[in-house]
Amino acid sequence: MTKHDNSSSLEKKQTVVDRRRVWFVVPAYNEEGRISEVLNSILRSGYRCLVIDDGSDDDTFGQANQSEATALKHLQNLGQGASLNTAFNYLRERDFDYCVTFDADGQHSLDEATNMIQFAHEGGQLVTLGSRFIEGAQSNPPLLRRIVLRLGVWFSRLHSGLHVSDTHNGLRVISKEAIAQISLSQPRMAHASEFLLEIQRKGLSWREYPVNIRYSEESLRKGQKSLSGASTILIDLMLGKFK
Amino acid sequence: MGWLLAALFIPVGFLGVALFARGYRLIGALHFLIFGFASYLIFFPELSSSLANSIGIGRGADLVLYLFIPFSLLLQLVLYLRVLDLERKNRDLVSKLAIELSSAKGQLGD
After folding, report:
1. Facing residues of A128 across strands?
2. How close B92 comes to chain A (CA, Å)?
3. Chain A residues 135-164 with a CB less than 8 Å from chain B
4. In terms of CA atoms, which chain A residue is nearest residue B83?
5. Using CB atoms, which residue from B91, B97, B102 is nearest to A82?
6. A118 within 8 A of A17, measured Cβ to Cβ
7. Segment-wise mean pLDDT, segments of 10 residues, chain A, 243 residues
8. Measured between alpha carbons, how far is A53 from B97 in angstroms, rounded to an integer?
């Protein structure tokens, strides 16, 4: 089921996860058309849900507030990394078992996230990373994105020292212990590379789990522009070294 | 003519002093250094020519141009890092405010 397992000595658990102790973190920016459906499906499954509205111009925050989710609002748009950092700061003050980072645009599957949580719980690793490129995954990204992602994987391995098979995959299951240690300073998309670096720096145990991403026309249009996005990430990471 | 040219650089010198006094030590010092060097070359142009010749550049004016490029790039980098630092502080504020507003709302029972 998985590759790149560095957690052979981890304690194996067989119990069922208490869903009320799992927070789904959903960073959202101008997602009024889809956010209600995504939040309701998470909440109906019995999980807790934290939405970070990253300075949306539309009614994303209003719709999130109408649901049972906890909604925080950035007064200005900062980027997905900043949204996750706000969410982690919020969660550090709370009692929970796992945090799941989940996209607001419907690209991620709730069933897969549920399986990932159980996998993390049984395996005992502190971080579980979704991967589109290991056995069991059937994602089929567009060609240009696939090429950029492959280059990104190569770069991430060099940059973080982790032998990951995918990079910039937003679906992750993170334990409370890992949340307490991970600190993200990259506000935009470079946070995903920084996240891997943090795992390596803090010596956190990790595994990958196969996931499928649903690419819609809208999510591709709204998501990272493959080449320009990759260039921006590289520049952000380089300048981040000066801070 | 020399005084007129030097006068063009006086605002740069003032800016350097003002920046230094307000705590922007590196940028202020760089501005002041540029002001001092430029003024010196205006009044003693033969120095730039002899300096240029000693490192294999034909004219003093070319040396000044070549020096200007890395200096201005360095200034850009310093200013950009300053912007990044301000962005980080702004991010921390926005993030804390989001959490505080949520807590306040919870206390009001909304």
Report:
1. A173, A207
2. 9
3. none
4. A243
5. B91
6. yes
7. 48 77 96 93 96 96 94 94 95 95 91 95 95 80 78 84 86 96 86 91 95 72 60 71 60
8. 13
